[in-house]
Specification:
single chain, cell membrane, cell inner membrane, 142 residues, 7% strand, transmembrane, two-stranded antiparallel sheet, YccF, Inner membrane protein YccF
């Protein structure tokens, strides 16, 4: 079922938004100073291409330790990201969600676009893992 969902997702907007993430990452890489953001864009672009069966989690939640992207520098990086690129990608996902929500079959895709819009606002410090690994990382209380 995940494979079918991912194929439909790719055709119905996921491919376009994945390319938007990659294009944003390319611009970030060209600026040299934006390499950390570019790396996050490539990871999130891959996630945007085929999101079903995967989930974005905070790296510190997964590894149980803080790193440069999950600490103060990650917060500063996310705020800079939000100002320069996050809003645009989030708006793209929200527009795609609106288009998908028009049909009944598109509602699950609209929900996924909304999740990706939230991630688009603050992607630094997140990583993509399978749903099973994400459940284990959250622990028994979630």
């Amino acid at each position: 079922m995940r494979t079918l969902g991912n194929i439909l997702w790719f055709i119905l907007g996921g491919g376009l938004m994945g390319l938007a993430w990659w294009l944003t990452g390319l611009v970030a890489f060209i600026s040299i100073i934006g390499i950390p953001w570019g790396k996050a864009c490539i990871v999130m672009g891959n996630f945007s291409f085929f999101p079903f069966g995967k989930e974005a989690v905070n790296r510190d939640q997964l590894t149980q330790r803080e790193d440069i992207g999950t600490g103060v520098f990650g917060l500063i990086g996310n705020l800079l990201w939000l100002l320069f690129a996050g809003w645009w990608l989030a708006l793209g996902h929200l527009a795609s969600a609106l288009c998908c929500a028009v049909t009944i079959i598109g509602i699950p895709f609209a929900i996924q676009h909304i999740k990706l819009a939230v991630i688009a606002l603050f992607p630094i410090g997140k990583t993509i893992v399978s749903k099973e690994v994400a459940e284990k990382a959250r622990g028994p209380f979630f």
